[in-house]
Known about the structure:
Layout (H helix, E strand, L loop, with lengths): L13 H6 L3 H10 L6 H8 L3 H13 L3 E6 L2 E6 L1 H4 L2 H11 L5 H19 L13 H9 L5 E7 L6 H6 L3 E8 L2 H14 L4 E5 L12 E7 L8 H11 E12 L6 H5 L9 H7 L5 E10 L14 E9 L6
Helix pairs in contact: 2-6, 3-4, 3-7
Amino acid sequence: MSSYTIQEAITPNIELFSAISDEIRIKILMVLNETEFTVNELKDILDIHQSNASRHLTRLSAAKLVKDRREGTKAFYGLSDDLYMSPSILEVVLKSAEQLKDIHFIKARVKETLSKRKKVSTKKFHKLDEVGGGLKAQVYLFSKLIMPFEHAIDIGCGEGAELSLMLAHRCKKVSAIDNNANTIIQLKKHLQEKNILNVHPIKADMNEIPLKNESADLILMSQVLHHASSPQKAIKEAVRLLKVNGLLALLDLAEHNEEELRETHGHLWLGFDQKRIEFLLKNLPCRILSSEVVLKDPITSIPSSFQKLPIICTIIQKETHSKY
Length: 324
């Protein structure tokens, strides 16, 4: 995975060029590059009729540019894996979108839609009460990370920031990242009370972290990837921040079928298997050092039906400099 030379999944042909020759379809692809959306969300963002949005999505699906997944009665549309694995084609689409006169208006509507969705789905929870957040799993993760580090980044530190505080004993500097403003405020108060000086809370989305390229030798993503609107973007951002030979530690639920977690815990993705993680890393300068599925320990504050869900622990090493 250290090479940037790839064979693209989509072969240019008449059907492809016909599909991306329409301005509305270019807009749809640009919007879906942010994350998945329903037909209703797309029609509101682009100010078009639902039937029109559905017609364009059908055309894009036929060209293997878009895929859909079911969540109850809703269908969410996103860019296809084939399009993500065809960067030159995706680049053409996104460069074309940049020439649209109303691009800034559309991007503003995308942010507004995601903000509304987050208010509905986001649940406040203590990090160790998150499904798959048991101590056994986190101790297992730390057993893989026995050396001290210069700068560690804990992406999605959560209430209490347990991992960030544990890292403070092993690292010269820890950046604790969370998108919840109240979480950051409370963490700052706690750090001040305990006189902990090497943990630095930062409010940021996991897709856009205001830190320099290749600034950390350890990055943790514990129980956050299933909350990511775009796992591809989240992983790419983490790799951007990682130094060569640095480690990215992913701890998340293994692939499962517990649909209820979407409602109870705001999960967007029902876990990951190693194959999916390998896909997320495709074309990034990394390699997987280890990937194992381990059982979590019971936590009484979550439903018993979720207590036996396995989690997957993956350790990834960056091999070469990123090209961003």
